[in-house]
Design goal:
The chain contains 11 helices and no strands.
Length: 180
């Protein structure tokens, strides 16, 4: 409703976002989750990573998003090489739903990006146990085993991956690079 009022009065979207953020602080982060998601999406679209980071830190404090949203936000932080915040968001996503194979896989990817391969392997194995059909997990396991020097296990994962016939062209390209 506030967004509509701001637009009706020809107030810029940025001013409306600032108004919503002020209300959010005053109301102790009690605005509706879909409004919070809209604000975060606005920051993403406008490449305002610093404002997004501040906003996401407050959302972590009050745990006001779904696990899927924390996963999405964490992925954005990985792309922007903000690995510390990406890790916090990925952990929050996983803590809200530890039975989600994608949350476990993403946490593995975040740890891998930080060269924390043993921790990454732990979550990739968990992701695989939660959903053995997830081709992306097999690709991540192949990558991690290769980085850890366990080439036999990397090859076994690769063979499972090829046998599953679920790979995209990009995945085949990544797999070939890992096995070189």
């Amino acid at each position: 409703e506030l967004l509509n009022i701001g637009l009706q009065r020809l107030v810029s979207l940025d001013h409306t976002i600032n108004l919503l953020l002020a209300i959010d602080v005053i109301s102790h982060n009690d605005i509706l989750p879909h409004v919070r998601m809209s604000i975060a999406s606005y920051f993403v679209r406008n490449h305002e990573i610093d404002r997004l980071k501040t906003f996401l830190h407050s959302s972590l404090t009050f745990k006001c998003f779904s696990p899927q949203y924390y996963l999405y936000a964490s992925n954005i932080m990985v792309v922007n090489n903000e690995l510390e915040l990406a890790e916090e968001l990925a952990i929050e996503s996983f803590s809200q739903d530890s039975t989600n194979a994608l949350s476990a896989l993403h946490l593995s990817i975040v740890y891998g990006e930080q060269s924390r391969y043993n921790e990454a392997l732990q979550y990739a194995l968990l992701s695989n146990s939660l959903d053995a059909e997830l081709a992306e997990t097999k690709l991540e396991l192949t990558n991690l085993y290769s980085k850890l020097g366990e080439n036999g296990k990397a090859c076994l994962c690769s063979l499972e991956l090829i046998d599953s016939r679920q790979l995209t062209v990009k995945a085949y390209t990544n797999l070939l690079a890992i096995l070189e």
